[in-house]
């Protein structure tokens, strides 16, 4: 993955960060890329329930404590 793989408010207004994974004041996607790069590669089908999808994505991208 690379920064160009993401649609951001600055580059594309049709695909907002609906899951809220990127803070609004963060100008780049490097922290998210690092987190996603640590995940095992699995197919993931998300449905239309944005809140459920957000919970799942937050759970799998938060560092283990």
Helix and strand string, N-terminal first?
Answer: HH
User: In percent, how much strand structure appears in the residues?
Assistant: under 5%
Largest beta-sheet details = none
Which segments are poorly predicted (pLDDT under 50) over 5 or more consecutive residues?
A: none
* Distance, first to last CA: 25 Å
| Portion in helices | 25-40%
Task: Provide the residue-averaged pLDDT.
Answer: 75
For the secondary structure, the number of strands is: 0
Overall outline: globular
Q: What does the radius of gyration come to?
A: 12 Å
When the domains are counted, the total is 1
Structural category: mainly alpha
What is the number of helices?
2
Protein name: FXSXX-COOH protein
Detailed description of the structure:
The radius of gyration is 12 Å and the shape is globular. It has 65 residues and is mainly α. It has helices spanning 30-38, 50-61.
List the helices and strands and how they pair.
Blueprint: H1 30-38, H2 50-61
Overview features:
FXSXX-COOH protein; mainly alpha; 2 helices; 65 residues
Quick gist of this model?
The protein has 65 residues and is mostly helical. It has helices spanning 30-38, 50-61. This is FXSXX-COOH protein.
């Amino acid at each position: 993955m690379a920064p160009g793989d993401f649609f951001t408010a600055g580059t594309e207004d049709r695909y907002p960060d609906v899951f809220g994974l990127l803070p609004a004041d963060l100008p780049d996607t490097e922290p998210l890329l690092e987190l996603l790069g640590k995940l095992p590669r699995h197919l993931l089908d998300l449905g239309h329930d944005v809140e459920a999808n957000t919970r799942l994505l937050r759970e799998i991208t938060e560092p283990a404590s």
